[in-house]
Write the structure tokens for this entry.
Amino acid sequence: MSDLQLTIKIVSQERELISEKADLVIAPTEEGQITILPGHVPLFSKLATGELIYKVGSSENLFAVSQGFIDISPDNTVTVIADMASHARDISLPQAQKAIKDAEQTLTTSQDRQEIIMAEASLRQAMLEVKIARKTPIVQTHM
């Protein structure tokens, strides 16, 4: 492994979530999933909703990201600007499951087009969060 690393920055609408060194980044784009290693060609692409993974050594960090943009600069900086981004450890499985039920209820009862579009987006996001939460080896506490 070379000493060359990437700098990954993940920014959501609310705040900058991380700015760290990484050995590789796997990101969902509208053209498909891409793997970014140090020395990657500069690229600017639309980010798709999905799983973003970055690795440092044997450690893997997983994020749920929604639409936005990814910029890979010549200085090995990967900047992810997402409408929404959540680290796997910050995802609450019970809250995501409740969001799925709420969105499904809205989809079956609403006649408002805008409300249906928002419910569909919420449903996709919540389903992604459930998928990521189930992959993450964290201890769930019972309340």
Q: What stands out?
A: Residues 6-88 form a domain with the ATP Synthase; domain 1 fold (CATH 2.60.15.10). The longest helix spans residues 113-135. The chain has two helices and ten strands. Helices lie at 93-109, 113-135.
